[in-house]
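Worked Example 4.2. Consider the chain below.
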Amino acid sequence: MKALTLIASTGLMVLGTIGLAQAQTSGTPGSPFPNAAPHEIQTINGVPCRTILDRESNQRIPVQCASSAGMIGMDPTTTGSVLVGPRAAGAPVSGTPASAFPTAAPHEIRMINGVPCRTVLVQGTDQRVPVECAR
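Applying the procedure from the previous section yields the following structure tokens:
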């Protein structure tokens, strides 16, 4: 009976620790993402990142990460919002003076929910997060 109590207590402590770790990255005033829901947070190579759902691919993609260099990416003020400014219809996305991102290299551009966004690489990961999007 004592062994069963010990195993059950250990299991509850582990579950409590997992819940505490999640609470520290989202939903609390002192967390890196105080306005994020727990399901929006993913840890990528040890870096906590806030994600949004890309409806086209049905996958969650990072939009802001708390790296050792500070916050990288965009701060979506509402879930799923990464739009910044309008772009001319038919204009190229990158590399030309009339494009939405004239100084961006083609590999820096990602389509998020049908919107072209300029991205940066989160140091220490293989993930790119948007820093600017066009409509």
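Residues 3-23, 78-84 have pLDDT under 50 and may be disordered. The two ends are 63 Å apart (CA to CA). Compare this with Example 4.1 before moving on.
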